[in-house]
Design brief:
single chain, five-stranded parallel β-sheet, 6 helices, 36% helix, 17% strand
Amino acid sequence: MVTPIAYTASVVVVDVANVMGARADGWWRDPAGAALRLCREVMALSQREDSPAGAWVLVLEGRARDAAAWLAEDARPAEDARPGADWVPPADEALPVRVVSAPASGDDAIVGVVAEAVAAEEDSCLVVTADRELRQRCEELNASVVGPGWLLRLLPPGNI
């Protein structure tokens, strides 16, 4: 069996809208709620010893941007909450996760984040998207690109 962590990178940039669209969990009824769930799952993944990235950037666009405000609130998990359920990291816990709320085009924001990472001479930048045009733009900046399935296989079961 092939391990789902076939790629590792200094920075992983996630096209949240594109990854949300890859799983049929009713995201279209509540894009902000679906984005919040996905962001929380990636935050939990970032804390695992086998996390494939040193840093994560989650780019939100459109109605999903409301999740950024919810993530900024100081919500605490229930004692028995498992990561990925209704988990929000404690505010005092340093996470290697940055949430970007794109004011306009999510693709342009992602390309900007990739350009930042490349300019900062990060060892590697990996972008998670299935968008062909965005893939090409990121590859032109020397980033690697994987599809949403790569990330979904790293998250708790039931996400595909």
